[in-house]
Amino acid sequence: MSERILVIKLSALGDVIQAFGPFAAIRAHHPRARITLLTTRPFAPLLRRSPWFDEVWEDGRPSWGDLPAVARLALRLRRGRFDRVYDLQTSSRSSRYRWFTGPVEWSGVESHRSANPRRDSLHTIERQREQLQVAGLVEFPEPVMDWLDEPLDGFALPPRFCLLIPGASPTRPLKRWPAARFAELATRLPAPPVVLGGPSEAPLAAEILQAVPQGLDLTGRTSLAQIGALARRAECAIGNDTGPTHLVAAAGCLTLAVFGEDSDPALSAPRGPRAGWVRHVPLAELPVAQVEASLASLRKSRARQG
């Protein structure tokens, strides 16, 4: 019987994207294992497309007050008879799932913190890699991203375009560079803007497109896989520290993330072959000229690297 592996990654989008490398490393370490991912519904369709998992469960975060749902998850985890668990969520919730799996080899926050008490000072990527090294993983291949694609029919995209991502978590307003600044930047880009985000961010897109009417509002219209497809075709992307910015960076788009006082790029900056960041405190006062210069510098540095 093949080895049974459970990987836990529940949320949020940016954190899920930054786990692509660990997902690839776990698959490389267990090439013949049956690997199950425990996640949540928003991310299951995307991750079912990926090459790293044999099965994706999307019931990973029931309300603790919903006792029947918690019992169903507990029974499912116990019946999974896993040989090893990689807890990449490393939250108090996911750590409690040890009660459900029964005695099993577990890689998580406790095993890592015992090896490095300073784990929380590491960037997410380095923290997860070190956790996996403690568990015995030695290969960390670059994740293949050719699966992150979906048709873009019906969007009427311009021949050339840049992506703008002006939204962020509604509970974290200090992570948002003002839409007026995005609008000013849009007038200086080498190609029309295509604005990405959720339905609630349509007003931000409207403000930006008032300045550049030839741009395109795709807020609330794209799947996560389509964002990856757009990233492959875009000339560049500029966005706040939010999930879609991490996604376009992972897909290989030239991506500049803007940071302010509410998040630290040393801990959470997007990673990708052509990704970079700029920070200003307070974020609301980050000059458009500084973003424009940072984007130009990023383009030159990545061009030199080939």
Question: Which short descriptors sum up this protein?
Answer:
single chain; 306 residues; five-stranded parallel beta sheet; 11 strands; 14% strand
Q: Which consecutive residue ranges, at least 5 long each, have pLDDT under 50?
A: none
- For the terminal residues, how far apart are their CA atoms? 45 Å
Radius of gyration: 20 Å
Query: What is the string of helix and strand elements?
Result: EHHEHEHEHHEHHEHEHEHEHEHEH
Helix content: 25-40%
The geometry reads as elongated
Total helical segments? 14
Structure notes:
- With 306 residues, the protein is of the alpha/beta class.
- It contains 14 helices and 11 strands.
- The chain has helices at 13-18, 20-29, 44-48, 67-79, 92-96, 98-101, 109-115, 124-134, 179-186, 202-211, 224-233, 243-250, 265-268, 288-305; strands at residues 4-8, 34-38, 55-57, 84-87, 105-107, 162-165, 193-195, 216-217, 237-240, 255-259, 275-279.
- The protein has a 6-stranded parallel beta sheet, with helices on both faces. Strands 3-2-1-4-5 form a 5-stranded parallel beta sheet.
- β6, α9 and β7 (193-195) form a beta-alpha-beta unit.
- α2 packs parallel to α8 (124-134).
